[in-house]
Amino acid sequence: MTQFSPFLNRWLSAVGPDKALSTLAELMGGAVFAINADGEILFWSRGAERLFGFSSEQVLGRPCGSVIRCHDHDGWSSVVQEGKIRGIPFEVEHAKGGTIRVKRSAQAFFDAQGRFAGAIEILWPEPEPNRKDIGTPPANEAEVFHGLITRDPALKQAFQIIRNVAQTDATVLIRGESGTGKELVAQALHEESHRRDHPFLAINCAALSAHLLESELFGHVRGAFTGAVKDHQGLFKRADGGTLFLDEVAELPLELQAKLLRVLQEKTFIPVGGDHPITVDVRIVAATHRSLREEVKAGRFREDLMYRLRVVPIFLPPLRARRQDISLLLQHFIDRHNVQGPRRIQSIEPEAMRVLLDYHWPGNVRELQNVVEYAFAVGRSDVLQVEDLPPEFREEPQSPSVPNIPAAESEADRIRRALASARGRIDRAAQMLGMSRATFWRKRKKYGL
C-alpha cells in the first residue's frame, strides 16, 4: 500500500520542498545532509552546522569529502554499493579540531538506469559514557551557535538564555560593544523561535534622521509629505508574524519612543499621514552599546520604554574579556578564507600570534575578522606573519614617554588608559605603568580587562 496521498506533491509545491525537508531534519535531530551524484552537498541542516562546526554557507556546493573528514575511508563507497546503511558507528573531525563519535545512517538514490543519483545521510552523536549532560559541551570545548563561536563560559551561558527565551515572545535587549555579534544573537533568537518561517528584518536607529526613521519603521500614506507619491509599508508591517531587530535603539529620537511604546503595549500603530491604526504581531529584539539606565537619567530615553525593551537583557562580553576565543576565532576565519582561495594559511608565526593575543581588540570580533581579511589580501606565504597584519599591529606609539595618568585614578582605570595609549600592546602598557608583564597580566585578569 502506498505511503503517500495523491495530493502530496501538490502540498509540497505549496509549502516548498526545501522548507519541508528543513523542518523534517530539525524534528529528527542530529546532522542531516544531502548530496548529489557527484558527492556535492545540496542540503546542510542546522544540526549539521552544530555537529561539524561548518555553516551552510561554507559547505553548500562543495564535495562532501572535503567537509566531512572521517576516519572511515570506505564510508561513501559503501553507501553506493549497499544502497543504505543503518546505525554504523564511526568518527568525524570537527571544524575546530578533535573528533566526534557518531552513528551514521544513509539512503542512496538511483536513477532509471541504475546509476547513483545522490543520498541523504543522518548522523547522531554517540553519548559519552557516564555523562549525564548529553548535548552540553564541556566547559573548555568550543561551542558553535548560529554563527557565534566560543569557549567562554559567560557567552555559553548567553547561548542557553537565547535558547530558552526564544520559546517565548518576550522582548529582548542585547547589550554589547560594537563588533560583538549583536545582530547574530538577534538572528539566533529568531531562528530558534516559532517565528523562524516569517520575516526577520533589521534597522540601525542611528543611521537615519528622525523623519526618515519614522517612515521606515511605521510606513506612510501617499501625500503624507513632499515626495510621498505612493503608500509605503514600514518595517513593522513587513515583519508581521516575524521579528524586528532595532539596533542602536538608544539613539531612537524621543518623539518616536512614544510611538514604539504604543506598538509594544497595544500591537498597533498609525502610519505617517494615516488615520487608521494597523495591528501587527511582531517580536522586538533591541540592541545598544549604551546603558539605557544612564540614558534615562540623562533625559534622553523614556523609562517606561526601557522597561518594555529590557524584559530579558542579554550581555555579550567584549573579545578582550574572552582571551581564549582569540585563537579559536582566528583559526575559524582562516579556515573560511582557505576554502575560498587562492592563498592558504597553514600556520601562524609565534610572534604574530603573540601580537594578536596582546592586542586590546576595541573592534571586537568584527575587527579580528577584518584583520584576517587584510592578512589574506597582503600576504603571500602559507605562514601568517607579523608583516601580514595591519599597520597598527606593527607601529610603536609615537611618543615613548609614559602617558599622563592621574594618580587619583583607580588602578583599573590606569591599566585601561595605558592599554589605550599603547594601542593594545601588553609589553608597552606594562612598561608605561612600571609593571612586569606577568604582574600586568594578573591585574588585567583581576579587573576583567
From TrEMBL:
Query: Do you know which Gene3D superfamilies this protein is assigned to?
Result: 1.10.8.60, Homeodomain-like, P-loop containing nucleotide triphosphate hydrolases, PAS domain
**Family matches, as PROSITE patterns:** PAS, SIGMA54_INTERACT_1, SIGMA54_INTERACT_2, SIGMA54_INTERACT_3, SIGMA54_INTERACT_4
Domain named PAS is located at: 17-62
Q: Which CDD domains does its entry note?
A: AAA, PAS
Question: Pfam family of this protein, just one?
Answer: AAA_lid_14
Q: Which residues form the Sigma-54 factor interaction domain?
A: 148-377
List the protein's name: Sigma-54 dependent transcriptional regulator, acetoin dehydrogenase operon transcriptional activator AcoR
